[in-house]
User: Which sequence fits this backbone?
C-alpha cells in the first residue's frame, strides 16, 4: 500500500493533465473549423454574379477569370486539404499525441490565413470594380452636364468673355477626347482605367468651370470699373489742384499710369486663363484706389481744418503772448519783495522765447498756405503742434501766476504761524512759572531757549527783502517741531511732578510701619527738591509698589481725574 497509493496519485495527476491538454487542443480545432467556415461563407459567388452584369471585356474579363481560378483553387484544393489535416489532428488528439497535433494545427493555421487573404483580396477587388463602375457612371454624367452648361454659357454670353473666348473654347473642347476615351474604356470593360480618366477630368473641371463665372467679372473690373475709377481720380485730382490743393506728394499721376499699364498685362493674363493670381492683384488695385480716395478726402478735410483754425491759432498766439508778458512784468515786480527759485524766475523769459519760436513757425506756415505749395495734411499737423504748444505754455503761465499770487498768502500764513508759535512759547513758560514746583530743571530751560531761538530765526527771515519764502517755510517748520516738543515735555514734566507728590502723600501711611519705605521716600523728596523730578517719581513709585502692588495705577487714575476736573 505504501507504494500503490503514491503511484495511483501520480497516474491520476497525469490523467488530469492529459485531459486538460486534450481539451485545449479540441478548443483550438473548433476555432480552426470556425475560421474555415467563415472563409467558405464569404459572398464571393454573389459578388462575381454582379460582375457578370458589366461588360465582360478587357480588364473586367481578365480579373473575373483570375478571381474564378483563385476561388476554385481555394474551394476545391485548399479546403479539402484543410479538412484532411483537421481529421488527422483530431485523431492525434484522441490518441494523446499532442506534439504532432500541435504541428498539424500550425500547418492548418497557415493554410487558413493564406486562403482568407486570397478571398479577402478578391472581395476587395470586386468592391473596387463594382464601385468604380457606379461612381464612374454618376460622376461622368455630372461632368458631361457641367460641360454642356459651360458650352451654353459660352454661346449665350460670348461678349462677356472678350478675348478669352478662344482659349475657353479650346479648353472646353479638350474635354471631348477624354469623354470619348472614357466611353470606349467602359464599353470594353476597363472600368479601373476609366476611373483614372474620371478623376483627371474632375481635377480639370474644378480648375476650369469656375473660370466661366470669374472671367466676365474680372474683365469687367479690368476693362471698365478700374479705368472708370482712374478717370474719376484724375478728374478729382485736377479739380482739387485747380482749387489750390497741393497733391504732388501723393504721386497719384505716376501711380495711376503704372496701374493702367499693369491692367494691359492683367487682361493678357486673363486671356491666357491665368485667373487666380489676376483676381488677387485686381483686389489689391481696388484697395489702392480706395486709398487714393481716402488721401484726397484727407486733404479736403485738412484744408477745411486749416481754414477754420488758422485765424483762431493766430489769435491764441497773440493772447498767450500778451498773458506771458503780463506775467513776466508781474514776476519782475513780485521779485522786488520776494525771492524766487532760479528755475521759477526763468519761466516767463523762457516762455517768451518759446513763443517767439512759435510765432516764426506760424508765420512760415501762413506763408506756405498763401503759396499753395504744401499739402494741407502736413499743414494741419503743424497747426495742431503749434496749438498744443500754445496750450502747454498757457497752462504753465497760469500755474506760475498762481504761484506769484500765493506768495503774499503764504507770507501772511507764515506770520500767523509765527504768532501762534510765540503764543505757545509764552503759554508754556507761564505754565511752568505758575506751577507749584521747586524750580525748572536745566534741561527744560535749554529746550525753551532753543525753541525761542528757532522762533527768532524764523521771525528774522520774515524781515528780509526780498523775502525768501522757501527759507521762511523751512525755518518755521523747524521752529514748530521744536516748540511742539518743548510744550509736550513741559506738560509731561508737570504731570510727573503732580504724580510724585500724590505718591509721596499716599506713601506717608507706611512710614511708621515700614522704616525702609520711610527712607526711600526721604530719598524721593530730596531728589524732588534737587529738581530731579524723574528720579523722584521712580524712587517714590518703587517704594509704594513694594508695599502695595498696584498702588501706582490707582494713584495715576486719581491724578487723571483731578486733571480732567481742572
Assistant:
Amino acid at each position: 500500500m505504501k507504494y500503490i497509493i503514491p503511484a495511483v496519485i501520480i497516474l491520476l495527476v497525469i490523467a488530469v493533465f492529459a485531459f486538460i491538454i486534450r481539451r485545449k487542443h479540441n478548443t483550438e480545432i473548433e476555432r480552426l473549423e470556425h475560421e474555415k467556415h467563415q472563409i467558405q461563407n464569404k459572398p464571393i459567388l454573389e459578388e462575381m454574379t454582379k460582375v457578370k452584369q458589366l461588360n465582360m471585356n478587357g480588364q473586367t474579363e481578365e480579373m473575373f477569370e483570375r478571381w474564378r481560378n483563385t476561388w476554385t483553387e481555394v474551394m476545391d484544393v485548399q479546403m479539402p486539404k484543410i479538412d484532411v489535416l483537421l481529421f488527422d489532428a483530431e485523431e492525434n488528439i484522441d490518441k494523446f499525441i499532442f506534439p504532432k497535433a500541435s504541428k498539424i494545427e500550425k500547418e492548418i493555421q497557415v493554410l487558413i490565413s493564406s486562403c482568407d487573404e486570397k478571398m479577402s483580396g478578391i472581395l476587395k477587388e470586386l468592391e473596387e470594380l463594382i464601385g468604380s463602375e457606379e461612381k464612374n457612371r454618376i460622376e461622368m454624367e455630372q461632368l458631361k452636364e457641367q460641360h454642356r452648361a459651360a458650352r451654353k454659357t459660352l454661346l449665350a454670353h460670348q461678349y462677356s468673355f472678350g478675348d478669352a473666348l478662344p482659349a475657353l473654347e479650346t479648353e472646353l473642347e479638350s474635354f471631348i477626347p477624354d469623354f470619348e476615351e472614357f466611353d470606349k474604356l467602359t464599353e470594353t470593360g476597363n472600368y479601373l482605367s476609366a476611373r483614372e480618366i474620371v478623376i483627371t477630368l474632375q481635377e480639370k473641371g474644378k480648375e476650369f468651370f469656375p473660370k466661366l463665372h470669374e472671367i466676365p467679372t474680372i474683365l469687367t473690373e479690368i476693362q471698365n470699373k478700374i479705368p472708370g475709377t482712374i478717370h474719376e481720380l484724375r478728374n478729382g485730382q485736377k479739380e482739387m489742384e485747380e482749387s489750390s490743393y497741393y497733391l504732388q506728394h501723393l504721386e497719384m499721376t505716376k501711380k495711376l499710369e503704372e496701374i493702367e499699364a499693369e491692367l494691359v498685362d492683367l487682361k493678357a493674363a486673363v486671356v491666357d486663363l491665368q485667373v487666380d493670381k489676376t483676381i488677387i492683384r485686381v483686389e489689391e488695385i481696388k484697395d489702392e484706389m480706395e486709398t487714393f480716395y481716402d488721401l484726397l478726402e484727407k486733404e479736403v478735410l485738412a484744408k477745411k481744418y486749416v481754414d477754420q483754425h488758422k485765424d483762431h491759432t493766430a489769435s491764441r498766439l497773440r493772447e498767450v503772448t500778451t498773458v506771458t508778458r503780463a506775467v513776466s512784468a508781474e514776476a519782475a515786480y513780485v521779485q522786488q519783495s520776494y525771492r524766487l527759485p532760479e528755475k521759477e524766475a526763468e519761466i516767463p523769459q523762457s516762455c517768451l522765447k518759446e513763443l517767439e519760436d512759435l510765432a516764426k513757425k506760424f508765420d512760415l506756415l501762413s506763408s506756405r498756405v498763401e503759396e499753395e505749395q504744401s499739402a494741407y495734411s502736413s499743414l494741419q499737423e503743424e497747426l495742431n503742434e503749434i496749438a498744443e504748444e500754445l496750450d502747454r505754455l498757457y497752462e504753465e503761465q497760469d500755474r506760475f501766476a498762481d504761484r506769484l499770487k500765493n506768495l503774499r498768502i503764504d507770507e501772511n500764513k507764515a506770520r500767523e504761524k509765527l504768532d501762534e508759535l510765540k503764543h505757545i512759547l509764552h503759554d508754556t513758560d507761564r505754565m511752568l512759572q505758575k506751577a507749584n514746583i521747586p524750580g525748572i530743571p536745566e534741561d527744560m530751560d535749554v529746550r525753551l531757549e532753543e525753541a525761542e531761538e528757532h522762533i527768532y530765526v524764523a521771525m528774522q527771515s520774515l524781515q528780509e527783502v526780498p523775502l525768501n519764502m522757501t527759507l521762511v517755510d523751512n525755518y518755521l517748520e523747524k521752529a514748530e517741531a521744536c516748540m511742539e516738543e518743548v510744550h509736550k515735555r513741559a506738560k509731561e514734566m508737570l504731570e510727573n511732578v503732580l504724580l510724585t507728590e500724590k505718591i509721596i502723600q499716599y506713601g506717608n501711611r507706611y512710614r511708621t510701619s515700614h522704616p525702609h519705605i520711610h527712607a526711600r521716600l526721604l530719598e524721593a523728596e530730596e531728589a524732588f527738591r534737587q529738581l530731579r523730578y524723574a528720579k523722584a517719581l521712580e524712587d517714590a513709585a518703587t517704594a509704594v509698589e513694594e508695599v502695595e502692588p498696584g498702588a501706582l495705577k490707582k494713584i495715576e487714575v486719581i491724578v487723571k481725574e483731578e486733571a480732567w476736573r481742572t
Notes: The chain has 19 helices and no strands. Residues 435-564 form one domain. The first helix runs from residue 4 to 40. The chain has a mean pLDDT of 77.
